[in-house]
Design brief:
It contains 10 helices and 14 strands. The chain is of the alpha/beta class. It has 3 domains: 85 residues, Winged helix-like DNA-binding domain superfamily/Winged helix DNA-binding domain (Arc Repressor Mutant, subunit A); 105 residues, D-Maltodextrin-Binding Protein, domain 2 (3-Layer(aba) Sandwich), CATH 3.40.190.10; 97 residues, 3-Layer(aba) Sandwich (D-Maltodextrin-Binding Protein, domain 2), CATH 3.40.190.290. Strand 9 and strand 10 form a beta hairpin. Helix 5 crosses helix 9. The termini are far apart.
Length: 300
């Protein structure tokens, strides 16, 4: 019996509290389990278990060796799973989440391309403007904007976006262009009411300057806030990618760019570590490549 198998037998004996239980779990005979433990002790040169007619207990050396065996066997299982995940064929249902507008504009096209590449996968998207607990809600991959808490999830940074304040050229034909954040109190503000909306707008690289705005119009969707700004009614603050089409077309212009906060990172996040499934690994690889190639997320 090789060393790896002998270590596996030892862990089962320790967990089951005896040779008979280990033999049952491993589908071996009790004498075979006994021989495996004896051979392992002979190889190491130390007694791992104290045997009596009524019980089997770990020696002091056995307790330390047990923890080492658990770690080594877990590492080997991780290596096997990682290799299988890297080279297996993606299949099953892949669940992906992101914020509503970012999901529609950037994640959905990646998902459609992915499903064309891997016909054995069924896709499920959850685009919502709230923080989704991907473990509790059964989500495979999330694309998140903002600084991540220490959660134990695996994350790959793919770029960044920034907050911008913008208005229509028509608005500035009848209103002065704000020169400092404090000037915003004299302007009509359109306030999105999403999960991260706040009347306190921060400015400067570290966000230490703040201005409390008092919107006269609240919109429950970013699209509505953008539409109101495009029609010249007032100013709004959103993320750069959300207003990029309107900026490129000249329907909106940004203001106070020199006063804005540092860009916010974009991450592709998943719960699995080295035991990553083929469907997750292949989607993460595609999403990372596609998002990193987008110049909009490199220049923020």
């Amino acid at each position: 019996m090789d060393r790896w198998q002998a270590m596996k037998v030892f862990v089962h004996v320790a967990d089951g509290g005896g040779f008979a239980e280990a033999a049952r779990r491993l589908h071996m005979s009790p004498p075979a389990v006994t021989r495996a433990i004896s051979a392992l002790e002979d190889q190491i040169g130390v007694r791992l278990l104290t045997r009596t007619t009524r019980s089997v207990k770990l020696t002091e050396a056995g307790r330390g060796y047990l923890e080492d065996c658990r770690r080594i066997l877990a590492d080997m299982a991780d290596a096997d799973a990682a290799a299988a995940g890297a080279h297996g064929n993606p299949s099953g249902t892949l669940s992906v989440t992101g914020s509503v507008l970012f999901g529609h504009m950037y994640v959905l096209p990646i998902m459609l391309d992915y499903l064309d590449r891997y016909p054995a996968v069924t896709g499920r998207s959850l685009f919502v403007d709230r923080l989704v607990n991907i473990v509790e809600e059964g989500i495979d991959v999330a694309v998140r904007i903002g600084h991540l808490p220490d959660s134990g999830l695996s994350a790959v940074r793919v770029g960044s976006v920034r907050r911008v304040i913008c208005g229509a050229p028509a608005y500035f034909e009848s209103h002065d262009v704000p020169r400092s954040p404090a000037d915003l109190v004299h302007h009509r503000i359109i306030g999105p009411t999403g999960a991260w909306a706040s009347p306190e707008w921060h400015f400067g690289p570290e966000g230490r300057t703040s201005v409390t705005v008092h919107p006269r119009l609240f919109c429950n969707t970013n699209e509505a806030a953008i539409a109101g700004a495009e029609q010249g009614w007032g100013l709004t603050r959103l993320l750069s990618y959300q207003v990029e089409p309107a900026l490129a077309a000249g329907r909106l212009v940004t203001i106070l760019d020199d006063h804005m906060e540092k860009p916010l990172p974009i991450h592709v996040v998943h719960a699995e570590g080295r035991r990553i499934a083929a469907k997750v690994r292949s989607f993460v690889d595609l999403a990372v490549d596609r998002l990193r190639a987008n110049p909009l997320f490199r220049s923020a």
